[in-house]
Amino acid sequence: MTDKNTELDQEQVFDPLDMNNYKVEKLPKMEKSGFEKWMARLGGPIAAIIFILIYWVIDIPLFDNLDFSGLSDKAQARLNVIGEAAFIRACYAMLAIFCASIVLWITEAVQSYLTSLMVILGVILCGVTTQKDAFAQLGHPVMWLNILSFILASMLVKTRVAKRFALWFVLKFGKSATGVFFSFLVINVVLSLFISATTVKATILLPIFMVVAAIFGASQGERNNFGRNLVLQNLFQINIGASAFMTGSGANLLAVSLLTGAYSSVSMIYSDWLAAAFPLAMILLLIGWFIGAKVIFPLKPEERKPQIQGGMERLRQELNSMGKMTVDEFKAIAIFVGVLAMWVTENWHGVSAEVVVLIGAVIALLPGIGVVKWNDVDIPWHLMLFSAGAYVIGSGLNATDLPSMMVGAGMDALGITAQTPFFVLYLLLTGLMLFSALVFQSKNMRALVFIPIAIGVEQQFGLPPLCLSFPVSLLIEHVYVLPFNSKPAALLYTTNHYSWSDTFKFGITMMLIAWVMILVWGETVLQWLGYTPGLF
């Protein structure tokens, strides 16, 4: 009897419209499955065995019979410095390090940043590249862009501009179910302009959309199609919104680094990415709303209107409790708009995206003028170290020309020749990038694996730079099908608003549509912008 009374008391205490009930620390943690635990235990030994076999045991004919005249300029420069024998050993070492690191990242046998540190150590000790080149990746311009973007993101969080904007927008336009869905679509896109961590966006928005879900009848385990749509579409919007901007995520920045590193004659600025990716992202987001709300999880009549009397008023109270906008909030908005304007107009003034964001960060931190102090800044240094390791692998791959070699061997084995239609190559590589997200949890890792492959195909068959690698790069953010596919996916799954089958139905449908869309894009927009020669 006492237990029943306790349960009743807990139910009475719980307020579905109280945002404090939906803080991330109060959500249940997603435990690793038995299979995932076994992967973590076996990952280290498997990685060690793979490294030993490739580096010391297996003879790889591709390396032993290497045609040195066909190497890229970067690889040729490294060959001239260390000689043929050492270069061949460096190729073995780079392949061993690459394969072992992929195993460690997939299985999560050790923390991702620790794997990156081991990668940096490995390429130095094995002579793949110089100590100077390896350590220099920490000073890579894209690394600075990443770090400084987190300063500006912290500015938006600390001043509460992001939360105020989200609450105001939902109250202004979220008077119906459709209005709510489109409000969060806009909010996610706007936040993606500056907040490059998708998990941070999910953390900011989760309490707000959980309260909205409760207002529309989805609360405390009571699932309905409004709640399914709201949470799943936020997950989709968080990721696809990030794909619209070069600074939308660290993986996008890594992709830009790989593309520009492979081709000295190619540059990729903020507006270049925006012109190709933003329209595609907007179309996918609109299709996502239609597929979710109209096809897979159609709303019942009662789910289209608020079901808790005065629910929206609670959101208004939350907004009112923040008080009037402060001077710091206005400053944050001014810095936000100023940096964005300079990013978009880089072609006119010539100031790089990295320098622009440095200007914004300096202003944001200036005593008496700025809006944040250094202690307010939340920079995930473990992610920075992970990125540094990823860039070192990219540098090592370029130094050995390994992608081009391996792609050439792979294409020969598959019977793919220079006469293979471009459409087939495009279909194959975009499909590999998309559906690899069902297995690989790290967007950076997928970028690191599949973009060099696409670059290698371009170089192997004499195709125009970026005709395959850029379309592949535009698909990095499609990590929303299953709960373990990304950190936001794992976080939002714990809200208990949908099942595995729900997220799979919606996610795999959108992934297939995205594949069709990138094919359409290759034939139209990417061809008009000069990236692809067209598919047909």
* Distance between the ends: 73 Å
Structural class: mainly alpha
Beta-strand proportion: under 5%
* Overall mean pLDDT: 86
Report the order of strands and helices: HHHHHHHHHHHHHHHHHHHHHHHHHH
Gyration radius (Cα, Å) is: 24 Å
Shape by Cα distribution: globular
pLDDT < 50 stretches: 6-12
Percent helix: 55-70%
Number of strand segments = 0
Tally of contiguous helical segments: 26
Main beta sheet: none
Can you walk me through this structure?
With 536 residues, this protein is mainly α. It has a domain at 33-136. Helix content is 69%, strand content 0%. The protein is built from 26 helices and no strands. The protein has helices at residues 2-13, 34-57, 61-64, 73-82, 84-107, 112-125, 131-136, 141-158, 161-173, 177-192, 198-215, 225-243, 250-262, 270-296, 311-321, 327-344, 346-349, 353-365, 381-400, 402-414, 422-435, 443-460, 469-473, 487-493, 500-523, 525-528. α2 packs antiparallel against α5 and α13 (250-262) runs parallel beside α19 (381-400). The radius of gyration is 24 Å and the shape is globular.
In brief, what are we looking at here?
Helix content is 69%, strand content 0%.
Any descriptors?
single chain; 536 residues; mainly alpha; 0% strand; globular
